[in-house]
Specification:
By secondary structure, the protein is mainly beta. It has one domain. Helices cover about 5% and strands about 20% of the residues. A four-stranded antiparallel sheet has the order 1-2-3-4, with no helix packed on it. The longest helix is centred in the C-terminal third of the chain and has 9 residues. It is globular, with a radius of gyration of 16 Å. The termini are far apart.
């Protein structure tokens, strides 16, 4: 089985939305590859295994509620509200711009709404 393509390998140009992650801490353990959306706040970030046949991809994930699960196709997707990749929509952020320069403090929910529209915080899938 060949390694999966990196989301950052999607062809560039004006239609490019994903890039290699600029997260200074690198991929979140146990994953070894990370990509993120190219602009906006919050920014999407995905963590996954570079090679599904690797030792890391075939070891237990060791994550809360997934301690013993082995899944080479597992991934983690989160929203990052600032340049150091904090992900809580209830917190306030100042480094959410393209150049990570401090800006007026904004709640994560306000950052989301200003870029993507209304947050429907009471929505639940059927059966919950």
């Amino acid at each position: 089985m060949k390694p999966i393509d990196d989301l950052g390998d999607v062809p560039g140009g004006s239609s490019r939305f994903w890039r290699d992650s600029h997260d200074l801490k690198g991929p979140h353990a146990p994953f070894d590859l990370s990509d993120e959306t190219e602009s906006g706040a919050p920014r999407g970030q995905v963590q996954y295994f570079r090679d599904p046949t690797s030792t890391a991809a075939n070891a237990p994930l060791g994550r809360v509620d997934l301690t013993a699960l082995v899944d080479p196709s597992a991934l983690e997707l989160d929203q990052d509200y600032d340049c150091v990749h904090n992900s809580n929509p209830a917190c306030s952020y100042t480094t959410y711009g393209s150049f990570c320069a401090p800006q007026p403090s904004k709640l994560g929910t306000n950052l989301y709404e200003s870029n993507y529209g209304s947050v429907e915080s009471t929505w639940k899938p059927t059966g919950c």
